[in-house]
Input
Amino acid sequence: MATKRIKNEEERLDAAHLERVIDMLEPKEGKPCTKKDACQVLGIAYNTTRLATLIEKFKEKKAYDAKRRGELRGKPATKEEVTYIIGEYLEGNTVDSISNSTFRPSGFINRVLESNNVPIRQSSHDYFKPALIPEGAMRERFNIGEIVYSARYDSIARIDSEKQDSRYGWIYRIYLLADKWQQSAYQEACELASLEHLRKLGVRV
Output
């Protein structure tokens, strides 16, 4: 009887599941689970060779990550790190993913963003309560064609036109560049963040 092939999209090879399997196979107390059970937890076909390889590579990566983080602990961010962190964040990557790729703690990533006046995305975006613009990114007026950050839409945007209002000051017609939007909108200058100071750091905007 042929064994049913498990599709790749059903595999669970993330760190959490691999850690769980290692704990099951190498428990501090009690009996270890069977390798068949371990394969089921990971959503892979029963294959002891592949299971052993997955666990070995995960342990090697974990050890390397710990070594690199130890080597970088206490060292200030280099210029290359700063531009990489900011660029990745503006592209929409999370603090956790940037932390993993740079071997720096999440708190370190947040400090780099805050100290360079990078607009911080809200964990739960609210159109009616946009995040505050960092003081160093505030501007009263922007240039046509300039790339900015829209707090109300939580999106990178392009300035397309402007008009002055006696009550609200400069109002801009912007084009939202984030994949989830791709549309035009109108926004006051106070809800837009300049990215020019980041461009001067060497960040590609």
